[in-house]
UniProtKB/TrEMBL annotation:
GO terms for cellular component: cytosol. Signal peptide: none annotated. This is NADPH-dependent oxidoreductase. Residues 4-153 form the NADPH-dependent FMN reductase-like domain. GO terms for molecular function: FMN binding; oxidoreductase activity. It comes from Roseitalea porphyridii.
Amino acid sequence: MPAKILIMPGSVRTGSYNVSLAQAANKVLAEMGAETTMISLGDYPLPLVDEDLKKDKGVPDNAIKLARQFAAHDGLFIASPEYNSSIPPLVKNALDWVSLAPKDIKAYSGLTVALGAASNGALGGIRGLYHLRSVLMNVGAQIVTEQAGISRAATAFGEDGLPTDERQRTLLEKTCRSLLDHLVEGRGRA
């Protein structure tokens, strides 16, 4: 049975480099035999995390739907922008709401996550992945060591949707392979 991987770009911006990275990861993971599902956080609009709102109205339905998406998959690939060397608000807010979903959903328990970032900068957005890794480990997800940073992202992706730079393409492939290997070796949900 193939591993089920959820792919989540951390941007909803038109022309987002991280949507391009997510699409590239989707292609690579599918070619490696995974069953993939790509979502947009734009389909799960959420208010800012607010404990008073949670107390008065409960966890928003979209947070519960997103948590169920996490729980229905063996692994998760997040392609996240970097904002001021950290996590963008859209991603952080979504991850925080998912952590507040009812515990019986088990959104993070046993979930294996791979990280990538795409940016026009020379570092490819990887500075923000350190913070993202920390947040995900804190809520119980398992994070693979490899990560894909795509620099000069405005011109990084070819007609086939994959990075044209061999080193960046290899990084993406190694990150995807590590995610699947982690699941096959029995350290995740699969």
